[in-house]
Amino acid sequence: MAKILIPTPLRQFTAGKDTVEVSGATVGDCLEALTAQHADLRKNLYNDEGKLRSFVNVYLNDEDIRYLGKTGTAAKDSDTISIVPSIAGGR
Amino acid sequence: MATTAAPPVTLTNEEILRYSRHLILPEVGMEGQIKLKAAKVLCIGTGGLGAPIGMYLAAAGVGTIGLVDFDVVDRTNLQRQIIHGTKDIGRKKLDSAAETMLDINPNVNIVKFEIALSSENAMEIVKQFDVVVDGTDNFPTRYLVNDVCVLTGKPNVYGSIFRFEGQASVFATKDGPCYRCLYPEPPPPGLVPSCAEGGVLGILPGLIGVVQATEVVKLILGTGETLAGRLMLYDALNMKFREMRLRKSPDCPICGPHRTIHQLIDYHQFCGVPQQPAEPAPVSGEIEPTEVKSLIDGKHNFRLIDVREPHEYQICNIPFARLIPLGELPRRLAELDPDEEYVMHCKSGMRSAKACDLLRQSGFRNVRNMKGGILAWSDKVDPSVPKY
After folding, report:
1. Looking at the complex, does the CB of residue A76 fall below 8 Å from at least one CB of chain B?
2. What pTM value is reported for the model?
3. Ordered structural domains, chain B, with CATH
4. Does domain A2-85 have CATH number 3.10.20.30?
């Protein structure tokens, strides 16, 4: 089971959970499994064309999947997948 | 050699004593302290992040600190903006921040810009400084700060916060990535709540702002490893620091090899934010709190729905109202009868406007938004209801 770390802004869609364990051969499969468990998360992660939204970055361990194999990047059980959306607060 | 060069920067005896703990650090020393004194740093925003940034940079002896802000100190700021105090409520943040910083270190030259940074003024202002620190609170200004830093070649020390979570990095260094490499596009307006809507742990900007101040000092001294090429993530709730690798994007529209942005753009348009904020709902769909009170008193048959979160309901509520948080509304529509009359309310009227849209789209015909939310209810109907 790979571990997906859920950022604060998206925890409202995972019943407050900060970590969700999922099975999947690729990062895309893992995210699929995540959104299958937490359906409300889907529209916040993917656009209408089913692509990851451009203000949501996904990392496999510490590397951005855009520079690996995107959602096709292979995921191992020991991997940590991080979802890192842009936030703008400062005041 | 040119004879017009400015006289060399030196330290007075007072400054030597003041900075003694820096001067005995080999990584700073007299040379580093003089670099700090000669440096010019622009802090955009004097709020949550700007407070520790301004105070520590002043204390560290950064010679010239520019401050950009147009806001006034409000009571709700004081939970985190420690550069301002209770006595400053109602004062310009610039005046209050400058006063605190000069109290910490009267040797600092503070340059105030009482403006909203914009595409029209940003280049001219940023050119006067060596390093920019981004302590703003909205996407349009963050993209503007990034772009102006890339175009002028000034490092952008970035920090951002939400609830219990913070991010920090250094963008736009000579060969490093920029904010657009990380996030090519902003989220559509309304999807990511602001701190005013989503809340923020008061101490959080303290930590992230101090990280930013540290990076500024390192950039000036030219020592250590900065966060350029790394994104630091901080989770206060679990007290975890993580770090992600950040690469310069080959497709970056402003710092990539095939860049398409050569000058500042309209950032409100880019971020989908209308310049003149549109009314959240058609006026015909709104109702004044006083009118809602008359409906309740007159035992008029209607439903008042509070779409805030349960923890907000605990702070204050209108007893007649039924709580259905906006996020739960889509799947709880079946609990509501479309033939009945509804008034929706939230804290200030934004979320309830979305709720009204949702109900109307779902075939509810008689839906109105209570103007100004429970804040307006407190002002106009029942002052015993606390504002938050």
Report:
1. no
2. 0.85
3. 39-270 (3.40.50.720), 283-380 (3.40.250.10)
4. yes
